[in-house]
Amino acid sequence: MTENTLKDKDGFETMYLNMGPQHPSTHGVLRLGLVLDGEVIIKAEPDIGYLHRGMEKLAESRTYQANIAMSDRFDYVTSMNNNFVTALAVEKLLGVEIPKRAQYLRILMAELNRVVNHILFFGFFAMDLGATTALIFGFREREEALELFESVCGARLTYNYFRVGGVSRDLPAGFIEKAGNFVKMMRSRLKDYDDLVTGNVIFQDRSVGIGRISKEDVLAYSLSGPVMRASGIKYDIRKDDTYSVYREFDFEVPVRENGDCFDRYMMRMLELREALKIIEQVLIKLEPGEILAKVPKIIKPPAGEAYVRTESPKGELALYLVSDGTANPYRLHLRAPSFINLQILQKILTGVKVADVIAILGSIDITLGEVDR
Amino acid sequence: MDAQKYLNEIKGRFPGTADAAPERIKDGVPALLCPAPFLFEIVKYLKAEGFNYLMDLCATDYRDSLEVIYHFCALETNVKLTVKVRLDREKPELASITPLYPGADWQEREAFDLLGINFPGHPDLKNLLLPCGWEGHPLRKDYSRKPDQYD
Amino acid sequence: MNISYGLENIWTWLITLIDRLFCRAGLPYIFAYTLEKIIFGVALLVFISISVLFLIWLERKVSAHMQSRLGPMHVGGWHGWAQTIADMVKLLFKEDIIPAKADKWVHRIAPIVVFVPSLMAFLVIPFEKNLIGQDLNAGILLIFAFSSLAVLAIIMGGWASNNKYTLLGGIRSAAQMVSYEIPLVLSVLSVIMLVGSLKLNDIVEAQQGWHWFAFTQPLAFMLYIIAATAEVNRTPFDLPEAESEIVSGYNTEYSGLKYGFFMLSEFTNMLIVALVAATVFMGGWQGPKWLPLPGIIWLLLKTYLIVFVLMWFRWTFPRLRVDRLMDFGWKVLIPLAFVNIFLTGLFMVVFK
Amino acid sequence: MGILLDEAPYILENFPGGGIVITSADWFINWSRANSLWPLTFGLACCAFEMISANMSKYDLDRFGVFPRPTPRQADLIFVAGTLTKKMAPRLKKLYDQMGEPKYVISMGSCSNTGGPFYDSYAVVKGVDKVIPVDVYVAGCPPRPENLIEGIKKLQEKIKKDTIKNNGRAKIFK
Q1: How many CB atoms lie within 10 A of CB C330?
Q2: According to CATH, where is 1.10.645.10 located in chain A?
């Protein structure tokens, strides 16, 4: 983008503001090139790739199991969901049957991670709008969830919990009570969240009607997940293109109509409640049993391709996996929801204020690890 | 499978596509091996037929050729369809579908960046992930990295 | 001796002593007067520095406790009391960077300009009846006049840094502070109408015996608190330094002690608006008769109550957007302030 | 560095008792520097979340006087938390250059120490020390917040051994 060719509507020179890669609220190392007329944006151009680690290339030199460990780092907020999609894709190629308990454990972890992601979204979104305390509240609850993860797999962030054919460890003693308590605590804290943020006049002023995405744009730009559902399209892969054993659980797919920042925020808050519901159901349904199917030590799926879609907290997380019969994948491509959702920025940032850029970016909920891979 | 109907329809309309690809993706999602010149027209047809959601666009290097894979989905009916295009490895060129699906923008740029596929018709085809002036296309199988100042 | 005016008596005693000594030495009164003012000024500076260091520490502790954290705990022993001292000493010995393309002199002067008017405003605040730098006839006007100067420094800093974030911060600040100055003055105007004097001591004495203007003029008090929050650039009106939007706003390019000055001045300003609120709306140095504490203690208690409220705001609210902020100032606060003045006038005409 | 510290120690040393002045000044300045480490709010990848966690309620780095600043000008410390890519490396260098002396670097996590799980990637810098000098390395993938706190403690120990005579490692690293 050339700086001086763009003029504002009165023909005056515009200002080029380079936001990022180091900026307190670009959620990592995103760079936004903004052409400003005062505080109004004339043109916005996201520039990504500052965290491009070449993971798709690296995957080709790792075994399938190592790729599950690698997938933790795709979107480091929703590691369990990344594990999930990777394991599912390999299993699809292998054609193994997963034990019931492992299926439940997977869903338990994936939904817990959805809760963690949405708590973090709450915190960062409120932080982007200037409410610092909300972020710290969010992290406080996240720590409780991380304790659960830690007791299961020993890690706080990069879990590497899933195995091809199941999960790596069974639940430790007392986990079920702890998780039950967590759900109860989360329910009561959600009320605090609503008191502190959702009902706040300034917060609503900053988010209602801001960054509206129409239904048509959602489809044209292939947006997915909460961003899609906030614009009135009721489509959840867990329901509409179901995978694993999500069929057995009873949960709603919340949907909102306006497609503005506030609706995207509300979507997450509603989904968080649904995720808690699923967790509760899993905890009841869990029965003792195998947690790992019989799979060979060295996994060599037959040559073929698999495309697996899952509903990650950020949107449609899909994996395209090509095997050539060796121990390493021939090609691994991640359909990263953040990456594709981020494209809409170019369209909807035009004409908004600098402050709204942050709100809109926050409401889309991206992780740069996944955008750049 | 519903999508098979569309495949047959396409084969009838576009004679060059008669040799559909074998069904390699499991779950019975049919794949259409489409000759490169027809791609834009076929995708246009698919969009008109209700495949309103482009799930994914990616490319693979099969050593002898490059393959671009489009995953479409019709959200209302939940019918999925895969379109594959084989490209010449030396001079890969394929019409951009960004005018039809703006969401393909960055995915095509990514393929351009990492695999060197040219998409005529793309509004702003340039580096996406790699730094400006990067040489080579890392996702190609024969890519070898030259040592730089950070090694 | 009435114990409740302890500090004041010491000060009167000191003044008398100096006057006598100079008189005996045969020097003109102007020298004694100058010396007294210098002593007062130095004492004031010490008081301000300590208060501000304390305020910064307090802000961190208050915010921490609101966020279920602890805040500074280790530096200096008890609850990290020495934290701000360590920060300031570090800033003092930190490299002072002037960006290559900055307007060097303006960049250098801005931190000083920001500090001077904040200090000047302290001169007319009555800490006790006679414990006052200069009980000017137009005391309250002087405070507002000086506090409006702060915006100049912020624009200077924002412009001179030659950085787009600082420029945005400076311009935001100019718009914001100039517009919120108006409701600020208008809200106090209704009090001035009731008192009939611009002298701060008169305003304080008019509130004798719990007739606080906070009770009789609640709307004016609310308007004042809101406008004052905006005036000192604190959340929800902290647009000039909105961290999540424009990095650190006007002080993005300042480092070392110069940044320290900006930080100190922010808290000095907060102290001033709280002192003025305590003086104009909450009875100033007067306390209840049954608890004879020195007036300065009462004043500080009230001040810190306001300060705490300001901090509470900061750690609770999100931030307003620029255009909504201006809307709020011009379309809500100013009309309300005028309505309040009108009602006050009506009230005075009817009941006099 | 300010005028105050550039030549003063060398002049002072020649005076009787100057050494004691330097020693006590050393103690005081190092005490303030060690206890007032303001990091830049700068996160690259996964480790950034552990870095943020360390600032939040449970671990609360604010206890040690660590007070995040959004701009490099006001920061003393930079946590390089995450994978440094070749596209980002020049920016990191720039950020580091924008910080005022004395400045410290904590390399957090395997990626920024050595490249970590991405050591064989075409796009990753194998260790942030190829770009900027590092004071403390914190191991882990990602390190727990406790590890980071330990790293800060180590850095504080290091700072406390400094003296104003070699003030500003600028002389070593420029």
Answers
A1: 14
A2: 55-372
Size of interface A-D (CB pairs under 8 A): 93
C113-155 tens-digit pLDDT: 888 888 888 888 888 777 777 777 888 888 888 888 888 888 8
Q: What is the pLDDT of residue B29?
A: 72
Is the Cβ of D169 closer than 8 Å to some Cβ of chain C?
A: no
CA-to-CA separations, C202 to C11, C123, C282, C297, C303, in angstroms, rounded:
20, 16, 13, 19, 19
Among chain B residues, CA nearest to A243: B27
Chain-chain contact of D44 with A29 (C-beta, under 8 angstroms): yes
Q: What is the 3-state secondary structure (H, E, C) of chain B?
A: CHHHHHHHHHHHHCHHHCCCCCCCECCCCCEEEECHHHHHHHHHHHHHCCCCEEEEEEEEECCCEEEEEEEEEECCCCEEEEEEEEEECCCCECCCCCCCCCCHHHHHHHHHHHHCCECCCCCCCCCCCCCCCCCCCCCCCCCCCCCCCCC
Q: Residue D85 and residue A157: Cβ atoms within 8 Å? A: no
Closest chain D C-alpha to C233 CA, distance in angstroms: 17
**Are D2 and C74 within 8 A, CB to CB?**
no
Chain D nearest-CA residue for B139: D122
pTM: 0.87
**Per-residue buried b or exposed e for C236-245, using 16+ beta carbons within 10 Å of the residue's own CB:** bbbbbbbbbb
- Nearest CA to A75 out of A129, A33, A27, A31 is that of A27
CA dist., res. A271 & res. A313, Å (int): 9
- Render pLDDT for C250-270 as a digit per residue (tens, 0 to 9): 888 888 888 888 888 888 888
Helices (H) and strands (E) in chain A, counts: 15, 8
**Smallest Cα–Cα separation from C299: which of C79, C47, C81?**
C47
Minimum Cα–Cα distance from C164: chain A residue? A17
Residue B123 near chain A (CB below 8 Å): no
Cα-based distances in Å from C185 to B137, C75, C146, C192: 65, 41, 12, 10
As a whole number of angstroms, the distance between CA C86 and CA A334 comes to 49
Give percent above pLDDT 70 in chain C. 98
D114 near B CB under 8 A: no
Average pLDDT taken over every residue of chain C: 84
Ordered by start, the domain boundaries in chain B are 3-94
- Partner C contacted by D6 (CB < 8 A): no
Mean pLDDT of A141-145: 88
Of C319, C334, C352, C317, the closest CA to residue C63 belongs to C317
pLDDT at A233: 87
Contacts of D74 in chain C (CB under 8 A): 248, 251, 254-255, 259
Confidence of residue C4 (pLDDT cuts 50, 70, 90): very low
Does A355 contact C245 at a Cβ distance shorter than 8 Å?
yes
Any idea which fold B3-94 has? Beta Polymerase; domain 2 (3.30.460)
Asked if B138 lies within 8 A of D131 by C-beta distance, the reply is no
Residue C274 pLDDT > 80:
yes
Cα–Cα distance measured from residue D136 to residue D150, given in angstroms and rounded to the nearest whole number = 10
**CA–CA gap between residue B53 and residue B40 (Å, rounded):** 16
| Chain A CB within 8 Å of residue B133 CB | no
Residue of D nearest to B130 (CA): D87
pLDDT tens by residue, A160-196: 888 888 888 888 888 888 888 999 998 888 888 888 8
In DSSP notation, C29-77 reads HHHHHHHHHHHHHHHHHHHHHHHHHHHHHHHHHHHHHHTT-----STTS
**Fold of the A55-372 domain:** Cytochrome-c3 Hydrogenase; chain B (1.10.645)
Quickly count: other Cβ atoms within 10 Å of residue C351's Cβ: 6
Write down the ipTM of this complex: 0.84
